[in-house]
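Field reference: sequence -> structure
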Amino acid sequence: MSNTIQPGYGTQTYSAPTKAREAKQTGTQANRFLDMAAQASRGRTDTLTTGMSGLMGMAGLPTSLMMDLSVRAAGQVQTGDVEATEATEAPSLETMLKAKYPNIHYHVFDASSGYWRTRNDYPHYLLYQDGDKAKETLENWQPTGANPFYGSIEGRFTAPKEIHALGNVPPGSKAVVIHPKVQERMEQDPAYAQEIFAKIDTWFAFDVARNEAIMPGSTWDMSQAVAIGEDGNICNACSSSAGGEITYSKSGSDDEESWWDLRMARHAEFMKLAVEKQIQRHIQASELAASAAAKSQLAAMLTGGNLREIFGSEIAGIPTETVLAITQSQVWGGGAML
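Structure field:
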């Protein structure tokens, strides 16, 4: 993908170019947040650039629901005497995730490859497929040739087939990749599994709130994938959205249109414009409400959500402080969080 969390991203906003809504494209849309974060981190500058870019109706952190989800995922956690509690088997990470995200794709392999973030032809779409074939392809993937172009040339959208393949991913899909050593440790330590669950769940919520606050309405079909590295931190992440265009065709001679056809066409165009204006007003009102709700949730997460504790010191190789600072700058500029 290209500019967001995209092919190589763990921290970038997922959205499309500013004109995304106006341009008809097929493929995915995103923006390189990680690159910004890396530059900000290396330069040690306080000047943060502004980038582009399903709300959840939760006032607090999604991780505040973590124990409840764990309970439901396991079935019923006994709260009686000590013997009953000890007899209850703790839920696995996969069980907890599937309790909240029923269709999530769960993989176990090392997904720390930098190609995730740097190559536009990395097959991210395979993250949303189950089975050994998808896993083996992702785990052993190596680039061939130069990094293919992804973007717009003179108004024409150009992308490799791997980007276009993301357009076939069902809207709202989720995927996680767990390092084998982390998987092994979680199987021996249920508390560690809870910690990893909190990290993944919080990232999904944070990423949606961030993108929605920056570009209202952009996340309704957003798919998200996150990889946990050997150290238990997020080593890679990406978000994408399917794009597309509607084309029309008609049979018969395009040159032979009757007076009645033309009259009806003019009437249809008039009605179309009237409806579009009504829809646009409705969309604008909805987007304002969505943006306000997303900003409110994001502000709560940034100020009192313990994000630094949950995410750890780094997100996809970028200091967590830098990721959070850039997020605040993108949403509120230099002003205070409202």
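Note: Residues 186 and 193 are 5 Å apart (CA to CA).
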